Amino acid sequence: MAIFHMRGTLLGMLLLTGQCGLAQADNAKAEVPRPERWVASWGTAQMIPDGQNALPADKWRDATLRQVVRLSIGGERLRVRISNVFGSQPLIVNAASVGLPARAPLPDLIPDSLRALSFSGRASVMIPAGTEAYSDPVELRVGRAADLAISLHFKAEPARQTGHPGARSNNYVAPGNLVMSAALPGAETFTRWYQIADVEVAAPASTRAVVAIGDSITDGYGVAANTNTRWTDWLAKRMAAGGLANMGVVNAGIGGGRMLRDGLGPNLASRFDRDVLARSGVSHAIVLIGVNDMGGLHKSGQDSPEARQAMLDDLKDSYRQLAERAHAHGVCLIGGTMTPYAGSGYYSPGAENEKDRQAVNAWIRSSPLFDGVADFDAALRDPAQPDRLLKAVDNDGLHPSAEGYRVMADAVPLQQLAACRFSPAPAPVK
Predict the structure, then answer these.
(1) pLDDT digit string (tens) for 364-394?
(2) Distances (CA, A) of 419 to 4, 17, 74, 273, 425
(3) How far apart are CA 379 and CA 17, in angstroms?
(4) Residue pair 250/42 in contact by the 8 Å Cβ criterion
(5) Structure pTM?
């Protein structure tokens, strides 16, 4: 059962009444443009690709990377954010474009949809180490749940790559500057994203976005490439069918992610500002984390009673910090309960570990820190064995199956997404 605060409901009703009146006035004066703002339609979490997750250096040299992303909301104008967050030297993008795939998952684009990207009016951009850069806005009509191809040309490889291994979609690299070519001759396929962070659309001022941030369960471990069946993908479909088609969904999961310590990528506490608060139009964050914190402690053999209690206290304190920062930026925080994982051979948790998981979940369900609760644990657990996933939704004892991800989406309280207690003022589109 969703838990959320109703403070400000009367004010919200008055605001909605005022918005309806404004909408009627707009209809009477069609020549007056509606105010717009930038809203994230797609995004991903950044990390340093290493080992097999890194793109070989020779693939970057005088090469075009064409990467495909699935948008969650549509619009008439868009812009792309390119990332060099983990770069150790400036990153130079020689040329860039966007276009609509002719037939996913193939690299060819619809010729008439190709749009060159510019940066302050220039075709190329230098992005300093540790930063990101927005493209100039481009006119291109995109629909909700549309695929968008982002093509970037590089003359040389980055000094250190920034990317996301869990793309779970076919992306392509080909020799030469082919950003304005509909075809991509000589293309090779890879299934990761590099140097791209966001796609934002210009949308009515009432449009918002929710960011799901967490570990491999949010990242979509086990999802087949090009199927777009993470729980966040199912959530976007459910929201559109449930009257929330004006809300974007961004997946900021990282496989192996932890709240308190770095894993394969940076810890969630350190990346919350960049992956949630810095994104345009965000009104809600759904946080699902802790399995790797608990399991890692158990696996390392350091799970003494004192160490376990310290970790539980640190987890709660980190959640408090997230809530403070979220509310200061007008973002509602929805807590996701940790799903069962006793059937996983990865951690082989004992009774003490399960007791800690239950304790954290009970705290999430009752804590006033959260503006809502997505009870993923209740949705996925086996009633006969609450420490294990129900067989119908189990992939490997730790991660949900394809059906499990759909069930997770159903556990998100749509009423809390529809009624946000905190309302940041929209920044106008320029």
Answers:
(1) 999 999 999 999 999 999 999 999 999 999 9
(2) 10, 14, 22, 23, 15
(3) 36
(4) yes
(5) 0.90
